[in-house]
Specification:
The chain is an alpha/beta fold and about 220 residues long. The chain has helices at about 45-55, 75-85, 100-105, 120-130, 145-160, 175-190, 205; strands at about 5-15, 20-30, 35-40, 60-65, 70, 85-90, 165-170, 195-200, 210-215, 220. The chain has a single domain, classed as P-loop containing nucleotide triphosphate hydrolases (Rossmann fold), CATH 3.40.50. The chain is built from 7 helices and 10 strands. The chain has a 6-stranded mixed beta sheet with strand order 6-7-8-3-9-10, sandwiched between helices. The protein has a 4-stranded antiparallel beta sheet with strand order 2-1-4-5, covered by helices on one side. It is globular and about 50 Å long.
């Protein structure tokens, strides 16, 4: 069984009296340990597809199975639990808490875990060492460069040891040199066994992936 499996997934939204169909029958499977890029222009449906893959939303029709669990009809609370257990999110805008220190930002997802949190501080320090920020643990986000903030976001995404790293335009706010460093980090994590999904419009970023999925007008082309 693939790690992610979508069967004829559709997604539509109601706007006043109109129904807008964004995804029009997606069939997709992603294996454990793959590095996959999802490419498409603005309005292609790639963000909606990302939201479904990341359990931020559910299909209007069809079926989505993640780690052998059908998530199609789960409640918001159930989806939240699955997100925290299986998925680490990395966004273009970092979404760090400005008044929290670097290590507090990395530890944030552990606040929502049911299991014992012993060792979380040690794990956070190890992750910050891995991304080269071991000397920035007490800094606030405003004291960091954009590349450093994204490294904090990557460490935060890894703190609960997720099955999937889902990166939405992770280099969109970074210069080309820093973007290369961030993508090299994601490649390294993939080589260590993590499944990596990158959503991008940039062919250069997609080039890091072992498989590229093109989406246009709500269908995979």
């Amino acid at each position: 069984m693939p790690l992610c499996l979508m069967e004829n997934v559709k997604k539509s939204y109601k706007m006043d009296s109109q129904t807008i169909e964004v995804l029009r029958g997606i069939n997709l499977s992603i294996e454990q340990g793959e590095f996959v890029a999802i490419m498409g222009t603005s309005g292609s449906g790639k963000t909606t597809l990302m939201n479904l893959l990341g359990c931020l939303d559910v299909p209007s029709a069809g079926r989505y199975v993640l780690a052998d669990r059908d998530i199609t009809n789960l409640s918001d609370d159930e989806l939240s639990k699955i997100r925290n257990e299986y998925i680490g999110f990395i966004f273009q805008s970092f979404y760090l808490i400005p008044y929290a220190t670097v290590i507090e930002n990395v530890l944030l997802p552990t606040l929502y875990m049911d299991r014992h949190k012993d060792g979380s501080q040690k794990k956070a320090l190890e992750l910050l060492r891995m991304v080269g920020l071991q000397d920035r643990t007490r800094f606030k986000p405003a004291q960091l460069s954009g590349g450093e903030q994204q490294r904090v976001a990557i460490a935060r995404a890894m703190i609960n040891n997720p099955e999937i790293l889902l990166a939405d335009e992770p280099t969109g706010q970074l210069d080309s040199k820093t973007a290369t460093e961030i993508m090299s980090l994601l490649v390294s994590m993939n080589k260590n066994g993590k499944t990596v999904l990158v959503v991008t419009h940039d062919p250069g970023i997609a080039g890091y992936a072992s498989r590229v999925i093109q989406i246009k007008d709500g269908i995979i082309i």
